[in-house]
Amino acid sequence: MKSKIWLSPPHMGGTEDKFVREAFETNWIAPLGPNVNGFENDIAEYLGHGTHAAVLISGTAAIHLGLILLGVGDGDEVMCQSMTFSASANAIRYVNAVPVFVDSETDTWNMCPILLEEAINSRLAAGKKPKAILPVHLYGMPAKIEEIVAIGTKYGIPVIEDAAESLGSTVNGRSCGTFGKFGVLSFNGNKIITTSGGGALVSQDVEMVNKARFLASQARDEAPHYQHSQVGYNYRLSNLCAGVGRGQMEVLPLRLEARRANFDFYVAHLGTLPGITFLHEPQGYLSNRWLTTMMVNPEIAGCNRETLRLAFEKENIESRPVWKPMHRQPVFESFPAYTNGVSDKLFQDGLCLPSGSSLSKIDLERICNVVFEVMGK
Ligand SMILES: *Cc1c(COP(=O)(O)O)cnc(C)c1O
Question: With a threshold of 0.85, does the pTM exceed it?
Answer without folding.
Answer: yes
